[in-house]
Amino acid sequence: LKVAVLGLGYIGLPTAAVIARTGARVLGVDVSADVVETVNSGRVHIEEVDLDGLVSGVVTRGALRASTIIEQADIFVIAVPTPFDADHAPDIGYVLQAATTVAAALKPGDTVILESTSPVGTTEKVRDLLAQLRPDLKVPGRTGDQADIAIAYCPERVLPGRILVELIDNDRVIGGITPRCARKALAFYRRFVRGACVTTTARTAEMTKLTENAFRDVNIAFANELSLVADTVGVDVWDVIRLANRHPRVNILNPGPGVGGHCIAVDPWFLVSAAPDRTPLIRTAREVNDGKTDHVIAEAAKLIEVTSGPVACLGLAFKANIDDFRESPALRVTDALAARFGERIRVVEPHIASLPEPLSRSGATLIDIDTAIETCPVMIVLVDHDVFRSVPLEERADKRVLDTRGIWSDQPSPSSRTSLRLAS
Ligand code: SAJ
């Protein structure tokens, strides 16, 4: 079996490596020559638990190879980004570009699978594009005839930091353009997925993926809104949530500095954009979560104004123990504080060697956690990396702290534990 995976990013590269481990010959296709070269030398350009060892193993065995150029294959897996534009409307340009690339290599009997998070109807658009580019091939779902190729939508659902485990253990939803397409894709996923593989239509699978991430966004928004209420009434929100969650039917998520990553901060907009007049809840959740970031910026600025000396901003990643900064609220907060307070801002982010733009030009500097403990009287916790979580009380007891993640529950007054209450 030969498989081509288009897009060697956070999803495509681990997927390509896992498929290669099953004995298939895998070609990873990426538009970036740097990424292709890195993978071909057995290295990785992203940080993900155990991915480096897996990639180096399958590349050494010759099971995984990367190229900027497509080749013939039996299965084509598209795992490219689907961003949104300034009006929050989804942009499926990369998906259509990848489908155009696939079209050149397609032959009868092949299967095309879209994994990118996509607005409802995208897989049908891919089908229409392939039909247009390859009039010699019968596409599925257009006529009563048997199609030459199969087209399906199978969203990834893996959690960064646990990708290799979840790629195998999670259940998969497989939506075919026709039931026959779904069955062909199912046979492929059964090669490496240990979780249940459930088939449905492409449109249902597309909406299911968006629904999962909107569910999480709405629930995080609830926690973030509670954190504002708790601050207003002077109660510790993490105490409230811990106690409320003792109820057998209550399970509140954690408040934080906002929601980041390329999924949860983006996908709900695809549902809103599909039915703008019918999605006040999903839209408001997005606004609450983005608003929480603005709120943290304002509260941090107040703290910095009433203190002196260097300020340590702990973390830039969008969540704990990863090196991914996409849509990161921690980065947004730090950028805003650095633009205003410049040289007072010290950034601690163990996953990078230099500060990204525009932070690097703001006067802010990158330091390690030991230096932060030694030199910074003010600390703003933005990411719950394990290395921050494990700083013992005696090393921070005398600091002014704004803890947006609730990781230092023993932080004494007058330092504030919540993201919102300020040290008096
Ligand atoms: N967050 C909170 N409070 C919480 C949980 C998360 O503030 O209680 C924040 C995180 O700090 C982060 C953001 O939300 O900034 C998103 O983090 P996450 O861990 O919830 O999710 P992602 O973006 O890493 O991965 C999600 C997952 N989706 C769901 O859990 C429904 C994953 O399974 C998907 O595969 C992934 O999106 C994706 O690719 O769509």
UniProtKB/TrEMBL annotation:
GO MF assignments: NAD binding; oxidoreductase activity, acting on the CH-CH group of donors, NAD or NADP as acceptor; oxidoreductase activity, acting on the CH-OH group of donors, NAD or NADP as acceptor
Q: Which family does it belong to?
A: Belongs to the UDP-glucose/GDP-mannose dehydrogenase family.
The record's annotation in Pfam families points to: UDPG_MGDP_dh, UDPG_MGDP_dh_C, UDPG_MGDP_dh_N
Keywords for this entry? NAD, Oxidoreductase
Protein name (database record): UDP-N-acetyl-D-mannosaminuronic acid dehydrogenase
Q: Which InterPro entries match?
A: 6-PGluconate_DH-like_C_sf (IPR008927), NAD(P)-bd_dom_sf (IPR036291), UDP-Glc/GDP-Man (IPR017476), UDP-Glc/GDP-Man_DH_C (IPR014027), UDP-Glc/GDP-Man_DH_C_sf (IPR036220), UDP-Glc/GDP-Man_DH_dimer (IPR014026), UDP-Glc/GDP-Man_DH_N (IPR001732), UDP_ManNAc/GlcNAc_DH (IPR028359)
Superkingdom is Bacteria
| SUPFAM superfamilies referenced in this protein's UniProt entry, alphabetically | 6-phosphogluconate dehydrogenase C-terminal domain-like, NAD(P)-binding Rossmann-fold domains, UDP-glucose/GDP-mannose dehydrogenase C-terminal domain
* Source organism (scientific name): Sphingomonas gellani
Supply one GO BP term.
polysaccharide biosynthetic process
